[in-house]
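Entry 14. Structure prediction run on the chain below.
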Amino acid sequence: MTPDGLDDLENQAERRRRGAAPPRNPKPTRETGQQKAERLERERQQREESRRQEEERREEEDRQAEAEKAAREAEAAAREPKASGDGKGSGSRPKVARPKSMPFYPNPEHETFLWSIREAAASRQQAVPATAVLRLALTRLEEQMTPSEIVKALGSAVQPEGKMGRPRL
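Output returned:
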C-alpha cells in the first residue's frame, strides 16, 4: 500500500469495470397482446375448473345429506311406536315443513316457575334448560289433548287477524 492513495483509485476503477448492481426493484416488463390473451385464457380455465369442482363438491354434499336424512328418518320410523287410532300422538300427523325456530316469550309467572326449576336443578348439580322443560310440557299436553282441543281452549287467547304493529301517523 502506498500512502499516496493509488490503491483507492485502483479500487474505484475496478468497481466501475464490474458494472452496476442489478436494481432492487426492477421495472415490470410489459406483456404483449398475445401473452395477455394467453394469461386471460388460463385464468378463465382455472375459474371454470374451480367452479366445476365446487359444483361437484356441493352435489356430493347434497347426496350425503339426503342419504343421512333418509337414514335418520328410517331410524326414527323404526323407533317410533305405531299410532293407536285415537287421533292423539305425533304418529297420526303427516310431516309438514316447519320453521327452524319458534320464539318463546313467557309471562312473568311462567318465567318465575322456570327459574324455580333451574334453582332445583342447580341444587342437585344438574342443568335443566328451559327448552327441555318446554319439550316435557308439550309432550304431556300432546298426551292429554288433541290439537283441535288445544285450539278450542286457546281460541279467545289468540290475537285476532287485523292490525299488526305500531300505527303510523
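Residues 101 and 131 are 12 Å apart (CA to CA).
Filed with the rest of this week's runs.
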